[in-house]
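Q: Could you write out the predicted structure for this multi-component system? I'm mainly interested in how the pieces pack against one another.
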Amino acid sequence: VRALFVFILVLSSIAFSENKLSNGHMEFGDGGWYLWVNPDGKGKASMKIKQGYGTQGSIGARVQVDAVDATNWHVQFQVPDWIAEKGKNYRLSYKARSEAKKIIHTAIMGGAPGWEYVDGADAPLNNSWQEFSQEFEAHRGGFKQMRVHLFLTQKGVYYFDDFYIEEVAPPDTIWYSEADSRIEQIRKGDFKIKVTDKEGNPLINQKLKVKLSRHAFPFGTALNLNVDSDEERWYRKTATDLFWEGVTENAFKWPEYEHKKNKPNRKYLKEYTDFALKHGWTLRGHALEWGIEKYGFDQHWARQGSCEEYRKHLKNRIDRDLKEYKGLFQEYDVWNEVFHEPAIFNRCGWDLLDSSFHWAHRADPTAVLYVNEYQVVSSGGTETYFEIIKGLLDRGVPVQGIGVQCHFNGKKIIPALIKSRLDRLGELGLPIKVTEFDIGDHIEGLGVSEEEQAILMERFIRTAFSHPKVQGLLFWGFWDNRHWLKNGGIFRADRSPKPAVAAIKKLWSGWSTQKEIQTDSQGFAEFRGFFGTYELEIANQKGKLGLLKSGEYFWKNSR
Ligand SMILES: [Ca+2]
């Protein structure tokens, strides 16, 4: 017995020396593996671990779910406990498949005795073995004992094998501490402006004032507009004080925009496009379609017929609206949440996704076409999102931007982890935009103090602004009275600002450029400043100039 024990010890230390999980490959049977079904729920499930159920005919787990409960955590396949070291980062990887397409949720839990959700990601399963992986910081709240729970929310048969937890590079805390110098490098340019009078004669040896009036980097919010009132005027004024890009929160979602066939609500949408024009905002169209089956989307008229009919309606919606709003919307979320809401593709075919982008690109070649997804930067669903976008690019689909929602729920904001996820998506070569930032939870609301909200928001904005692949950041609303999360806004219901407002203003006033320089003997003046639109003034003459990259510019003065 002792010899066998030593043998196993040696074997495991050689073969799986880096795996924090004992028996992650299940080659020692069911030791450590559990199927947990909440005894107070309606879930029914059974598990068997044996030869043939794993990868390449090895030992693996087969879980059969016969009944589910409405709540997602009622049926859990549980990975053996493991011990995390404080302040370290880990990567979980595993292989899974299911007899029909399903989505499971992988929850990384810290304990014990109570178990608390640390991080997690959804994984889309199909009939062939796929590997899923995610990185996370183990030690939120100082947990030591850790576990992985796979939430099984759909009936059917699942197979699992090859669970692996390994330590990865420590959190790059240096990276965040260098944010300001990185911002200095990536968000600024060297500009040389030649100033002339209207005849083209250089204005030499004169004082030139330059002032950044709007960053090239979009900073925005979801808008939820209403009819004119005192409240509405405050809402719009407040938006323009803080932001310079907008996204339609609900007004352009298909069931909202075209509730009845061929009766699009153009009048209401015009409020948004007029608002954007009036204030010189850029505007995102959210979203041409969303596969979700809640919130009345499954009741929408377009989905009531056959797949062929649906396809025809969708093509018409995209073609009609992108032609109509060309120049008014600069970009679109073509499909919202392709990763998390695939049911319609599974039913009607994934070519719907590709075709939608082709239709959109043909209808408005000037619009930037995005995918948009949650839990891909705020938590670890990054790899699955990466693969979806890579697939689109490999097939020549005109996807042009990566939307990362960044609803942080109750999770910590860890710059190093956010960076590594942005880096990974950045490898795809497309701009990344934070499209729906907030930090509250559906149930608990804000979940942190208003002071903590300000700190977290400042940390996140600085993280995103200092990452070279991020090309914009939008909040998902700013006022508690018009926010999808209770207390999720940065203004309270009584319109008073929370501390986050001052923190945000302070950030942007730090990232400003205002200078007085001198034109030389040929009328040139040079300076370094943030990319954006500038107000210029020379000898009481004023003008505007967009300085979007380093180089030489001409400003022909009206004098
Ligand atoms: Ca195995």
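A: Regarding packing and overall arrangement: The longest helix spans residues 307-324.
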